[in-house]
Amino acid sequence: MGPLSYPKQKKDLELKQTLKVYMDNQCDITKTADKIFIHRNTVKYRINKCSNMIGTNIEDPVHSLNIRIALYVSEMIRFD
């Protein structure tokens, strides 16, 4: 997950949180936007940015599973 694994900047933390909520809502942009109280176009922008940072297609089932696992692991192992 590259720089999103353990974000140090606020913008990267927002991207990671958006990605997590997006994955938790089965990649539904509208549900994600509703959950985190942002416009759906902002969700699209952030997910596209995450995809570019990670260097993979987030919607691909195999990559999606890997991302979900990485998000879970990064939450379990926090380095503060």
Automatic annotation (TrEMBL):
Residues 16-72 form the PucR C-terminal helix-turn-helix domain. InterPro entries: CdaR-like_regulators (IPR051448), PucR_C-HTH_dom (IPR025736), PucR_C-HTH_sf (IPR042070). It holds the Pfam family HTH_30. This is PucR C-terminal helix-turn-helix domain-containing protein.
